[in-house]
Structure formats: C-alpha cells, structure tokens
Design goal:
Number of strands: 0
Largest sheet: none
Helix content: 55-70%
Structural class: mainly alpha
Number of helices: 13
Strand content: under 5%
Distance between the termini: 32 Å
Order of helices and strands: HHHHHHHHHHHHH
Length: 284
C-alpha cells in the first residue's frame, strides 16, 4: 500500500473512532487529516491527481459506498451522499462514458477543453434574449422555475483518475440540461424518469439504483404514469440516444430544443409534468 493510502487509512480509522454518528460523518475528518499532512510539508501529494482529490483504497471505497448508499436511500435529497455513492461505485461506467466521448469528435473536444457549466461561465443576459424554444432559453427557464443553480454541483473527490473525475463532473453539470431536454421537472416523478434515462444511457450503478428504488417513493397515483408511459419512454430514449456527454451544450444555446432532441434521438416526453416546488438533489 502506498504512503498516501496508509496515511489516508490512518486518518479514516482515527476519524471513525473519534467521530460520533454515521459513517458519512467521517468524511470531513478524513479531509482534515489530509490537509494537515499537506500543511506539515509532507512529500505525499494528496491532491496530485486533481485539486481536492482524496485517495482511497477499495476497502475504504466500499465503506463509503455502503454508508452513502444507506443515507441516500433514506433521503434522496442528500446530494452529498448521492455524490459519494456515484464516485465510489462508478469506475467502470465512467471508463465506458469516457471512451464514448473519445470516439465522438464533439465529445473529444469536450475532454480536451474541459468546459464547466457554472453561473460564472454562463452569459445569462444573452440567454434571456434567445427565442422561445431555444436550448439556452429553456435551460435558463428550468433553473429559474425550479430554483436550482449549476453552482450547487459538488466537486469530485474520490475518483482516482483526473480524466474520469472530469467525466463525473461533466455528468453532474449536464444533469439539469437532461431535465430540460427531457421536459422533466424536479419533483420525485420527474427525477425518477430522468434516472431511468440516465441508467440506460450511462450504466452508472448510482443511476441504476435510483431507477430501481425511486419508484418505491412514489404514490400509486404517480407510479401509474411512470410504469405505463414515462418509464418506457425514458428507457427507450436512454438506450437509443447519442451519448449526452458528447454534446458541447455551451456552443448550442441558440439551437432549438426540438432540433437537438431530434439530433440526439430523444423522443418528446409523452406527458407534461408540472414544475416542482422542491429543488432536486444537486448531485444526482
């Protein structure tokens, strides 16, 4: 085991002994221990893969995955736990998503340029001037109607590859654009429908788990449209659609939502759902 992982494991073990509460309460203590080692001038560069990276071995990842999974099941709006679950279980899926991006000219450009979708990178004034139905205008409307912001996306910490960490970050920042493309609000039914699409599209275990267990949180009234129309549509669109991470959305704000759906192979939603009052999990 490397010196980096030995020290990380020591910090994790010490934090688990001294921190009361559930497993996920340990994370800040592990991060603090990592920073303390760095501040002491240790030659072990904990952030050498990318800023904020926390190295973990398979055993540590398994502990984090179990703890975060339990927390996320209890409260799907615990976006911090959903984020940890995605990072600690998604390695194979992230590699597949990366390879799909590399095989697409537009996706390859994204991997090279590493754009970020943040309020600081969006020209909100220009997006407000776009015509009705344009991607940028509809995306901005989605953010405002659902009271969400791309800046709520947590930074990746537990993915042990700089390139794959960016793929995960891109997935998070594209999530709200998928809501826009699919015409789904941030209520529970809308979130589950998006998760069904993402499960078929990405293969991320986090998405598959959410797609499988999300319906359990729906009332019978909301479960019926999911099973009969929204679910099959989301799965079909997710399987058929071009890789949604291979779209340089920042260069397509003027494109109509309808034409982008047609280009990607996404069918229009079979139902129109009302906008949710409660914000969605920022790191779904």
């Amino acid at each position: 085991m490397s010196l980096i992982n030995v020290r990380t494991l020591r910090a994790f073990t010490t934090a688990r002994r001294t921190t009361r509460g559930p497993l996920w309460a340990v994370l800040p203590a592990v991060s603090l221990g990592r920073r303390q080692h760095t501040d002491l001038g240790s030659e072990s560069q904990y952030d050498r893969l990318y800023q904020g990276h926390i190295p973990t071995n398979p055993f540590q990842k398994a502990l984090l995955a179990v703890g975060s999974g339990v927390a996320a099941l209890q409260d799907p709006y615990r976006h911090d736990m959903v984020a940890v679950l995605g990072e600690t279980t998604g390695h194979l899926a992230l590699r597949s998503m990366r390879d799909q991006m590399k095989s697409d000219p537009e996706g390859c450009s994204i991997l090279l340029e590493r754009p970020r979708i943040r309020l600081s990178t969006l020209d909100l004034s220009h997006m407000r001037t776009l015509p009705e139905g344009a991607l940028g205008r509809e995306y901005l409307r989605f953010l405002e109607d659902n009271q969400v912001t791309p800046d709520s996306r947590a930074d990746v910490k537990f993915v042990d590859s700089e390139e794959l960490a960016y793929v995960m970050q891109r997935y998070r920042e594209v999530h709200d654009l998928l809501h826009t493309l699919l015409g789904m609000p941030t209520n529970m039914l809308g979130e589950v429908a998006v998760k069904w699409f993402e499960a078929a599209q990405t293969g991320l275990p986090m998405c598959i788990l959410g797609a499988a267990l999300g319906p359990l949180r729906l009332s019978s009234r909301r479960l019926q449209p999911l099973v009969t129309s929204l679910g099959p549509w989301a799965l079909r669109s997710g399987r058929r659609a071009r890789c949604v991470l291979s779209v340089f959305y920042e260069r397509r704000w003027e494109q109509s939502l309808e034409s982008l759906r047609e280009e990607l192979g996404i069918e229009p939603p079979p139902l129109t759902l009302r906008t949710a009052r409660r914000a969605s999990p920022p790191d779904s």
